[in-house]
Write a structure and sequence with these properties.
The chain is 40% helix and 14% strand. It is α/β, with parallel strands linked by helices. α4 runs parallel beside α5, α4 crosses α9 and α14 packs across α15. The longest helix has 26 residues.
């Protein structure tokens, strides 16, 4: 008798993470066959020549002998004190006892949702979103309810639209600011309106602020926790993006808001943190020098810096294009162009991304991978050198022209 396939969880049927999904697997196949692939699908600074600041490396090296045992389940006290102090400097109420360090923000998102959700509970998630939020909500038995952040509104949400989605099962609002994938930076007035929605309905604010210092052209980041005051709030940050240290896998969260209302949440997080023993100890030694040292990302995002130049190259390429438009990103490490469907009726972002990979050996992420219904966007990272991005957009334009020719033949 033939063995049956091993059954897997039904929760995975609606879970997707296309950033490392089928297109990425196809890229690996092409690379094994000897093809060179330009990978523009992921914000991984170390693959594009960026290096972790030397003072962070030195801190890890100096503390290696103290990294061989488990630490406290919430993280090294020295590191948690530095994280809490940063939040206090920003105007929030914070304490090391309410800070948790994890193996990247990704792990902490999962822990937070596991602590918050019962089966069927709803979480309000932006569309487009960083897709881990939708996936982790589903994996923890919850229901993601997406609120729109369309290009026509500079990829900003509307507080009234969000409030209209609240039901008795709603538990939390996810806010990604600066935003991945769009690069939108939320104004203070909008953040205050979101706080008001959370206050009126007894919701928890989940604030993904991993790109808080990656800003362009004078854009100002406003942390949400100081505005939230007594409203329960979890703020997430880490070393991966601002400090160019993705491989260190260091993230943190800080719980703020009324201490009586959040006491059970902190205890639940402590239990879950204990179950995984602790996060990587070695890399935690980089947290204090990162938060107390120089802001090296600022030199890259200011005029004359490499990230600023890369963003300018993308803007120029979109302006030259016959087919593309874009809301200029004001923060984070990505651009989110859209294809004008008047020029390309019937355009499908996933089919385009596959054709681009097969024909031009360029890998990007279709916009629909970020949980939006529209199929005319794609995300591209700003990490490559400007000249590399020029070449990438030349390839994108050639593929768009092929799709236009194909569409014209169908019409004829």
């Amino acid at each position: 008798m033939q063995d049956a396939n091993v059954a897997v969880s039904h929760r995975l049927e609606q879970v997707r993470y296309d950033i490392r999904g089928p297109l990425s697997r196809r890229a690996h196949e092409l690379e094994r066959d000897g093809h060179s692939i330009l990978r523009l699908h992921i914000g991984n600074p170390g693959l594009f020549g960026f290096r972790v600041p030397q003072h962070l490396r030195d801190a890890i090296s100096a503390h290696l002998p103290r990294s061989e045992a488990y630490c406290h389940q919430q993280g090294l006290l020295e590191a948690r004190e530095a994280i809490a102090a940063q939040h206090v400097r920003n105007g929030a109420k914070a304490a090391p006892e309410r800070v948790f360090i994890g193996n990247g923000v990704s792990e902490l998102i999962d822990l937070s949702l596991r602590a918050l959700l019962d089966a069927g509970d709803e979480v309000l998630v932006p569309a487009p979103d960083y897709p881990l939020w939708t996936a982790a909500t589903r994996l923890n038995g919850g229901v993601p309810v997406h609120y729109p952040c369309p290009a026509e509104r500079a990829h900003l949400p509307d507080a009234d639209e969000i409030e209209a989605l609240v039901t008795p099962r709603t538990r939390a609002i996810v806010v990604i600011n600066p935003n991945n994938p769009t690069g939108a930076v939320y104004p203070r007035e909008l953040l205050m309106a979101l706080v008001d929605v959370a206050r009126r309905h007894g919701l928890v604010l989940l604030c993904d602020e991993i790109y808080d210092s990656v800003l362009y052209d004078g854009a100002a980041f406003t942390p949400l926790a100081p505005l939230a005051g007594d409203v329960p709030c979890i703020s997430y940050g880490g070393l991966s993006k601002v400090h160019l240290a993705c491989g260190y896998r260091v993230g943190w969260l800080s719980v703020s808001g009324d201490e009586a209302r959040t006491a059970n949440l902190v205890r639940a997080l402590d239990l879950l943190a204990s179950l995984r023993l602790c996060s990587n100890v070695t890399a935690q030694w980089a947290i204090k020098p990162a938060l107390e040292g120089p802001n090296e990302i600022g030199a890259l995002t200011r005029e004359g810096g490499r990230l600023h130049a890369a963003r300018a190259a993308v803007r120029a390429a979109v302006e030259r294009s016959e087919f593309l438009d874009m809301v200029t990103p004001m923060g984070a490490l990505y651009a989110f162009p859209q294809v004008d469907i008047a020029h390309l009726p019937g355009f499908d972002d996933a089919a385009f991304a596959l054709d681009l990979l097969e024909n031009e050996r360029v890998l990007l992420v279709p916009g629909s991978s970020f949980n939006i219904p529209a199929r005319n966007h794609f995300r591209i990272t700003l990490l490559p050198e400007p000249g590399v991005l020029d070449d990438a957009f030349a390839a994108i334009e050639r593929e768009l022209e092929r799709h236009a020719q194909h569409a014209n033949r169908r019409v004829a």
